[in-house]
Structures are given as structure tokens and as C-alpha cells.
Amino acid sequence: MKGRRPAVDDSAVLIEGPWQHRFVDANGVRFHVVEMGSGPLILLLHGFPEFWWTWQHQIPALAEAGYRVAAVDLRGYGASDKPPDGYDVYTMASDITGLIRALGERDAVVVGHDLGGTLGFAAAGFHPRSFRRLVVLSSAHPLRQRAALAVDPRGQLSASRHLLAFQLPRYEHVVTRDDAAMVASLMRHWAGHAWRDTPEFHRYVRACRDAIQLPQAAFCALEAYRWALRNVLRVSGRRYVKLLQEPLKVPTLQLHGERDRCVLPRTAQGSGRYVAANYEWRVLKDIGHFPQLESPNLVTAEILRWCKELSPCTTRAELVQPDGMVVSRRRPEVIDRSSDDDSSRTDTGRRVLWRELGAGLGVLTPIDLDPVVHGCDAVPPNEVV
């Protein structure tokens, strides 16, 4: 048909550069990995609806700093295999640890954005020995995200309407309709104002639109979100929540754009309650959902700082940095969940808890809905830390 774009194949995501493309077998799947440099391993995980190219600025910069950098296309994305199943968090978390071993390493610094950050939180909880450190961008701890969907209908639930639409059968055809126009619309809505009017933004969106139109890519991308919702009340979902309630023992840095309209800052800021190791929360001023692209030098510098920072934090303080970042830092401490007492909660907390439990969210425990941040000072829900 006249004017119709040709079919997309894997060559669309095999973008040439100073890096090397290779394919690695891990956890029963062949993954496409872009690799550069030598030294300790840094594994980069992208989000939806992207592919490895989201790390185009970080790959050479981290490699030049003395690290072996591997940016992977997640299961079902880009040039990686697209099996019909295996999009549950257990399997995708095992993909991460399997990749680390397949690359010949025992552990790695894992950096995840969006979905990659969610998987990073889960994999670090399930397999902490495979993680030296964790860096999470534009994502919340899975239990924090789940609680926000329940108690913040005008905020995070409204911002996540696309996730509810993803539950509809055959919705992948809507995602790819009109040359994946929905992908362009979502990315424009999520991006920071300054970046979305640049030629780089339009080039990157074009690449993501092509990548999501690879055969079966849209279906596979939506399956992970479908699993998350349909397993809420199943045994596997309850087991998932129980595992994630264990305090994370991996030092974690969390970077979040102040203007993120996909995962709201007030949703992500409470994720530190689930981390017992070193933890830092940093808000990036005037940045949207894609900090690694909107402010690549700053993100690269933060990743390198976190890789090299070995001493634990001795104090917790909120600091305004010269570059405009707002920092919340906490030294490692053990979160004693056995000491939580319903009598110490506010009446509002009780009403929220029982209202949501009555709505069928029985997998959420009181600690998940409590507005108090354990191990940190309480923060008003509408205040950016």
C-alpha cells in the first residue's frame, strides 16, 4: 500500500557505535546485550516502551571510567527472544541474575529505569548476593507502587491509566496502531518540558516506535503488566508480596525526576522503607521520566559516585545540592517490622487500611499502607524530598 512503512526487523535496534553487539543465553532465553569496556560489571536495564538504546550516553561514559558495561534488551524487547510466557516477576528477576552469571561475573552493579528499576528491586530482594549495588531511576519499590495505586486515586492511579488499559485482550494492537502513535503520545506526556522539544527526543521516540513494532514485542511488553494485576489475589501474588516485605540488603540509590508524570515522585519517595542497607533518594529538578536522556551527565556522575562510595552514611539529612538536586540520605539500619503496632497508627491510617482491604486488596499489609516511612522521618505525601 502506498505510504505504508516497511516491516520492522531486528536491524532497527542493532544500532552501531563504539560498543559491541552480542547474544547471550541465560535462563532459557537468548538476550541481546550491548557491551563496552572492561572492569567491574555494570548491568543496565531499560523500561517500557524502550530498549537498550536508552543508555546510549551512559555506555561509553561508564566504560571510559573503568567499568565493563552491559546494556540488555529485556525478555520480549528489542532483539532479545520473545517467548510466549515467562513475564512474571520471578522469571524476569531470574533473567537478571542469569545474565550476570552468563557474562562471567558473580555480581554486578545493576542500574534499572522504569520497569528495569522494578525488576531491580525484585531481583535484589530475591537474589541479593548477585548485587553489589542498585541504582533505580524513575521507579518505585513494587509494594510502594501497589499501595499508591490503592490510596492515591487522583495521583498515581490516574497516572497509571495506561496500565489498566493494558489488561484488555489484544490491546497490543492498539499500542502499535498508526505506526505506534500511542508510544509517541505516552513518551511525550512523560518527558520533561525542556527535553521533549529537542531533535534528540524525536529521534529517540522514532527508535522506540520502531522497536515496539517488532514482531510480538508489544504483546510481550504488556504481558509483564498483565501478570502484575491478575496475580494480586492469587497465591503467587501473595508470595510475591511476602518476599518483597523483607528489608533489602543491597545499597540502593534512587534517582527521580521532579516532573515525572508516569511514576509520581510522591509514590517513589517512600521506597526507602524497604531498604535496610545504605539508601539515598535524590530528586532531579525540572526532569521528567527519562533522566538518563534528559540529564545524561548528571545521571552518569551519580552512578559512578554510587559505584565508588564504600563507606556507610553516618547521618541522615536532607540537603539541597548546588546543581538543584534535593537529597535524602540514610545510614543502614534494620527495619523491625515486628514492632509495628496498630495502636500507634492514626485514625486516618486505619480508615485507609480497612477501606482498601475491603476493596479486595487483601495482599496489602498494614505496613504497606501506613503513611509513616520506617527508618526515615515522616514526609507529607505532597512534599518533594
Automatic annotation (TrEMBL):
The keyword 4Fe-4S does not apply. Keywords: Hydrolase. This is Pimeloyl-ACP methyl ester carboxylesterase. Residues 40-296 form the AB hydrolase-1 domain. GO terms for molecular function: hydrolase activity. Pfam families: Abhydrolase_1 (PF00561). InterPro entries: AB_hydrolase_1, AB_hydrolase_fold, Epox_hydrolase-like. Gene3D superfamilies: alpha/beta hydrolase (3.40.50.1820). The keyword Hydrolase applies.
